[in-house]
Amino acid sequence: MTLSILLLCCTGTAIIGALTGDSEPTKTGTAADQAQQPIVAASVEPTEETSTPAAAPTATPDALAPSATASPSPSDAAPAPVGKVTTETEQATIRYAEKTVKDSSLAEGKRVVRTKGVNGVRTLTYEVTTTDGVRTARKLVKSTVTKQPVTQVVAVGTKKPQSSKCDPNYSGCVPIASDVDCLPKRGDGPAYVSGPIRVIGSDIYDLDRDGDGTACD
Q1: Looking at 39-196, which runs of residues are DSSP E strands?
Q2: Which residue of 2, 47, 60, 133 sits 20 to 30 Å from the alpha carbon of 35, by its own alpha carbon?
Q3: Mean local confidence (pLDDT), 139-162
Q4: What CATH code would you report for 83-159?
C-alpha cells in the first residue's frame, strides 16, 4: 500500500514525501516553476473480513430418532387364554314303534298286546371345548345305537258279532223256536235237540221232565 503526503509551505516550497517500499529523490522549487499538485489522499482499501456463518447444530441420533413407547416386559403382558378339548357321552331314549295286526279270532274292535314294546338306547358322544374353564363349544361327533328298541305288536279283532240262535236258558245250544222237543222225536217240534242239556234258567220248553236239572237225558 502506498502512502503519499504533500506539504505546502508558505514560501512556496513543496516537499513531497513518498513513503513506499523504494525511496524516491526529493524535488524542491518555486510555486511558479511547477504546477501545484493536488493533494491526494491515500485510499485505504478496507480489509474484507469473511464472516463464517455459524454452523448449524448437528442433530444427534437420539434427537432424530422418533420417540418410541417402551415395550411392556413379558411379565406385564396379559396371559394367553388356556383352551382344552374333552369328550362327553350321554344316553338318549329311542321310543319303540307300534305295529297292529288283524286277528279274526277276536271280536271286532278288540285290541290285545301280543308283543310288549321296549325302548332302545342311543349313546351320543360330544367334543367339548373350554377356554379358561368356561365352555365355549360343543359338537356331536358320534351317535351309536347301543340297545335296539323292540316293536310292540297289537292284535285287533275283526270277528263280526253274530246274533245268537241258542236259547240262553240252557247250557248247550237249544234252538229258539215256538217249541223244542228232545231227540229222538218225542213231540211234534218244530225244533229238536239232542241231550243231555243242562238247564241254567227256566225250562221254557219242558225238556227236563224229571226235574234233575238235565234235559233230554
Answers
A1: 83-94, 98-107, 111-115, 120-131, 134-147, 152-159, 170-171, 180-182, 191-193
A2: 2
A3: 92
A4: 2.20.230.10
